[in-house]
Amino acid sequence: MPSVSDRPIKRSIRRNELREIVPLADSTIYEMEQRGEFPRRFALSPRCVVWDLAEVEAWLESRRTRPIPRAKHPDVAQRKFRPVKGQGRAQA
């Protein structure tokens, strides 16, 4: 399989088009890039970064085929501030 640098890039997309395709916050995309979980951006100029559209589409397809476990809800009964009142407790 050819590496990312060996493949010819057919089309690149800028941030505004990436936002239309991938509904994640910029900070989430950046963090995922740093962890290696999202295609890396590359610079066209000192002030312009783009993503390879084929890599982004492949990433989306892999997310469709592999289920992602949902995050667990926090146990609100363990909160220190504004604790949840139980059914048997009287309200103040």
UniProtKB/TrEMBL annotation:
Gene3D superfamilies: 1.10.238.160. Residues 67-92 are annotated as: Disordered. Signal peptide: none annotated. This is AlpA family phage regulatory protein. It comes from Sphingobium naphthae.
